[in-house]
Amino acid sequence: MEKNFAFLGWTNGQICRFWHWIDFAKNFSFKKFFAGILAFFELFNAAAFKTPVHPYGQKIDLTDYKLVFSDEFDGDALNTDVWYTRGNGARRSGYNAASQIKQENGNLIITGEYLEDGTYGAGWYAGAIALKQKYTRGYFEIKCICNDSKDFWSAFWLQGNHPYDHVLSDGGKGSAEIDIFEAFGNDKLLKNKRNMFDHTVWCNGFDDDVEHLDKCSFSGIGDDIFHKYNTIGLEWTEDEYIFYVNGVETGRTSFGKGTSTDEEELIVSLEIPESGITLDKSEKTEFIVDYVKVWQK
Fold this sequence. Notes:
The chain contains 5 helices and 18 strands. By secondary structure, it is mainly beta. It is globular, with a radius of gyration of 19 Å. It starts with 11 loop residues before the first helix and ends with a strand. The N terminus is likely disordered.
């Protein structure tokens, strides 16, 4: 599709990880050989069937970066000097509301639930927050436990000013939506599919189709993501987007016409599905966040 995709649809990062595992010339071993074989089949399946991969790549190196934002959600209320509640009101098959967002025991908690007397009437509710400060490039990381529900899903993402406009997005170079992660998989049968983080870059104007968005998507495997804290990060450079799970690369891409040059909004959200919520109205689901941090060069 683009120079960042090689044979079999592998990203450059996936190819590098495969050769990293089977680097016979430097240090052959049977253990590494069989690990390389497993990596090959995992990467082949990722390309052919969109299955997730274990983080095999480089570890994040923040040597040249400076921490420019950190919120560990201490205290009993959201810091509204830096955050605002986003998209309040109707949202797909429910509503976003500030009432669904709280801080407790050093965590941000966004709750999905059915409310008879909610702010906007009876219905399903969730919430989202976004930083008032916008960013262009850097390393963005969240530490969280994803919500345990097959309907609602947890998300950490960046949104530019015009990612869906065919002209202004300009194939992602002018503006993009970068889903650092979305967690959909807890109703899947396979363990790896349950524990996967989806990484996606959305834009418009990469091809001649005005109506449909262009995207690049792949997945990384976390550690029991609905019950344990995991860290998920994005390194956004002038040349590419590099995604990390627990500090190790899961994939990279320069999809589209290049990485965004737009100032983008950083968002933490519990997303409401379009329709078909299967939860009992007495049930709740929670997205628990330990911290959000941003580094820049």
